[in-house]
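Researcher: I'd like a candidate sequence for this fold, 280 residues long. If you have to choose between options at a position, lean toward the conservative one.
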């Protein structure tokens, strides 16, 4: 069982090596990279490639590690006791299973995505160390131990918003998704928009990488934003000539709202374009 990419996902050689190494070692695969480089999509494609179910746990700033195991719904139990409901006598009726519990109980080892782990509190990764190591946890309310039937394939993503603890990093296989070069990005486009005009793609790539390379840019556009921009260019029937003119004149490309996402970057590009015109 080896991951070689899929028809819908262009995987570089180093990414394939990382996925297969994590599977062989039975370690969580920690994926970092710029937002929009396909970290979350990778989990779905691994699940598709291996024929496994995908279980996704999307982390927020308020997420606690315990929620991934289970939660005890004491409020519902109190309400049912006031109403005289017979369910109140069995505490297991008020145990809400989390994503790790769901993954541990699966008959076939699933792919478990813990998405954007760096959004949570700094203690969040440490609170999962034992469970990810031993593949088990204890439910104190019912006095039972939940053990994984098979070790799931675990993919953990991070946008590098905060540093992760060393103890957590030590237990993971790490891979950083580099931003794709021009050739790789062209292959990605071919997956999403087969048959696109090569002239249009050439000019779009030239504009896009010129924009990304602009010094002082606060947020550089990502792969997903480039694909959105291409979709708009095709929908509005904007040809390569319009992009070539903007490249030559160093002006903001058409439909730039798909690429530039804050006013500082727009003003920066406008100043660069003005200076280029005045100097030209």
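Model: Candidate sequence:
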């Amino acid at each position: 069982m080896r991951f070689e990419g899929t028809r819908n996902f262009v995987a570089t050689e180093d990414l394939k090596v990382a996925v297969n190494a994590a599977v062989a070692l039975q370690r969580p695969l920690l994926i970092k990279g710029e937002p929009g480089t396909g970290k979350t999509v990778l989990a779905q494609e691994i699940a598709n490639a291996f024929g496994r179910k995908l279980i996704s746990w999307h982390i927020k700033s308020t997420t606690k590690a315990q929620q991934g195991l289970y939660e005890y719904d004491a409020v519902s139990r109190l309400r049912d006791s006031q109403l005289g409901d017979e369910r109140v006598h069995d505490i297991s009726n008020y145990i809400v299973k989390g994503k790790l519990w769901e993954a541990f109980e699966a008959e076939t080892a699933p792919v478990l995505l813990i998405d954007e782990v760096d959004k949570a509190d700094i203690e969040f990764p440490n609170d999962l160390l034992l469970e990810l190591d031993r593949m088990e946890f204890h439910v104190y309310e019912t006095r039972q131990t939940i053990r994984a039937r098979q070790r799931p394939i675990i993919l953990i993503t991070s946008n590098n918003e905060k540093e992760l603890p060393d103890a957590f990093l030590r237990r993971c296989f790490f891979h950083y998704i580099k931003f794709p070069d021009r050739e790789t990005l062209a292959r990605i486009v071919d997956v999403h928009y087969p048959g696109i005009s090569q002239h249009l793609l050439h000019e779009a790539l030239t504009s896009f990488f010129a924009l990304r390379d602009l010094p002082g840019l606060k947020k550089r556009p990502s792969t997903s934003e480039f694909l959105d921009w291409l979709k708009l260019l095709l929908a509005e029937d904007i040809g390569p000539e319009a992009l070539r003119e903007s490249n030559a004149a160093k002006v903001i490309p058409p439909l730039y709202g798909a690429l530039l996402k804050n006013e500082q970057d727009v003003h920066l590009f406008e100043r660069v374009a003005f200076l280029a015109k005045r100097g030209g």
